[in-house]
Design brief:
5 strands, 10% strand
Amino acid sequence: MASVKDLRDQIRSLKNTQQITKAMKQVAAAKIRRAETAQKQARPYADTLGEMLRELVAAVSRVDHPFMNPGNSSAPSGMILMTADKGLCGAFNANVIRQGEAFLREHPGTTMYSVGVKARQAVRRLGGGDHPSWPLNAPSKLDAAREVAKAASTAFVEGKISEIVLVSSKMVSMLVQRPQTQRLVPIARDGIAGETGGSGPKAMVEFAPTPEAVLSQLLPKYLEFTIFSAMLETDAAFFAAQLVAMNNATDNAGKLIDEYTIQMNNARQAAITKELLEIVGGAEALNG
């Protein structure tokens, strides 16, 4: 049985840990509000961009753009693996990395692009070596998204990869963050047309100089913003996972403190009882 001093030291250490987890929980709660605000601010642009893209695709009979055509079938796939930069968030990063590993098993030789420090470490651990990588918490997420889109789209247009696939986390709720795999390029025309909101009358829209020319400028922006939106969602999902993990850690530390306190009280009571027995035994010996 541990001594009273050892148990007291363990309780003190747990209380210090509990203070840290409480502080991290409060920080995560504050940051997730900012991340959700950034998502809401970007949503109108995403809606407008998607609506304009659907109008363009419906207006042209044939889309002659590399993003709308099949890639080089003999080239490997290209995968963008997106995680957080830090840990202490439960299985959040591990679930996304596991999803990426499943894709790699089905598509050997995949060209890797990583967003997030944990993703970069995972790719190197999987034998990816040096590869294009970007931190999730870059000074400007939009600039980072543009760089990721440019690197991957250039490789696709040049025929070095056959498709661009994004593996990231989708924030279902504060308690559930689910990894997902989505193909970004080539863009399916049927999928874009299927996103139209209804069959009511549409306003007449004129595109200058031509719908094809506008579409060639819009599709790269669409890819950039899709990656940017995924970065914002990963950021929010990370803080939600960290909030839950730190809350659980705080509760578990409290339970351990209660258990060790009971053990310390029992050990202290046993020590007092032992001393009393020794005193009584010594007194009886002297009287005898």
